[in-house]
Amino acid sequence: MVSTVLLFALIAASASAIARDTSAHRALTAQLGPELRAQYALERIATELRMAGEFAEDRDEGNDLDDGEDTNGNGVLDSDWNVPDGATNLDRIEFNRRVDLQDDDGNTIASGVYTRRIAYFIENGTLVREWDVTAEDGSTETRRTIMVEKVVDMRISRTGLLIRVELDAILPTEIYAPGRRTYETRIWLRN
Fold first, then answer.
1. pLDDT reported for residue 155
2. How many C-beta atoms lie closer than 10 Å to residue 20's C-beta?
3. Which position among 40, 72, 105, 143 has the lowest Cβ density within 10 Å, counted as fewest Cβ atoms?
């Protein structure tokens, strides 16, 4: 009987400690959330830009526009950037990224296909990712997702093959003084 009471006391103490830790974890995650989301957003942008610029549309690397290489239809071998060389402090980036199309079983159907337009921009203090997809009826449909809220500014610059993306985010002042931080990533591209 005594051992059963002690066992229940031990279980109750453990449950209480776990509840406190879980509560503290939730509070910390809520406070760190904006910073983590800003870092994730920059990583996502960098990954997609690398996928866009890895091989460009020049699949045979011959520096000539061959049949089937101009998948975005603009007449040049690129990923349809809206960020020209020498651009500074643009507040929007658009591009097509390179993907491999797969069937339902995960087998590659086509390699090096370019997606429709993908864009990142700030709208009402929110970093938005917007992309075009082909609907079932063949029409083009635009989709959006919110990447980060409480973003003051985004600046995109390009020098040659280097693209720099900066986000200014507002963070909780209880943790971060002065409550605003700039996050930056630099991406080396092929085109």
1. 92
2. 10
3. 105
**Per-block mean pLDDT, blocks of 10 residues, the chain (191 long):** 75 68 54 75 87 62 64 62 81 79 78 76 92 81 89 88 86 69 80 54
* Token digits of residue 168: 């200014």
**In 10 A of CB 156, how many CB atoms?**
21
Three-state DSSP at 112 gives: strand
So what's the pLDDT on residue 74? Answer: 63
Q: Which residue type is seen at 16?
A: S
Instruction: For 88, list phi and psi in degrees, rounded to 5.
Output: -135, 140
Q: Which helix (H) or strand (E) holds 41?
A: helix 2-53
Q: What is the pLDDT of residue 63?
A: 58
Q: Write b or e for each residue in 22-36: b if 16 or more Cβ atoms lie within 10 A of its Cβ, otherwise e.
A: eeeeeeeeeeeebbe
User: How many Cα atoms occupy the beta-carbon half-sphere of 111 within 13 Å?
Assistant: 7
Distance separating alpha carbons of residues 45 and 174, to the nearest angstrom: 29
114 and 97 in contact (C-beta within 8 Å)? yes
Pick from 188, 152, 186: which is nearest to 167 by CA? 152
Residue of 161, 174, 171 lying closest to 81 (CA atoms):
161
Compute CA 8 distance to the chain's CA centroid, rounded to the nearest angstrom.
48
The whole-angstrom separation of Cα 157 and Cα 184 is 11
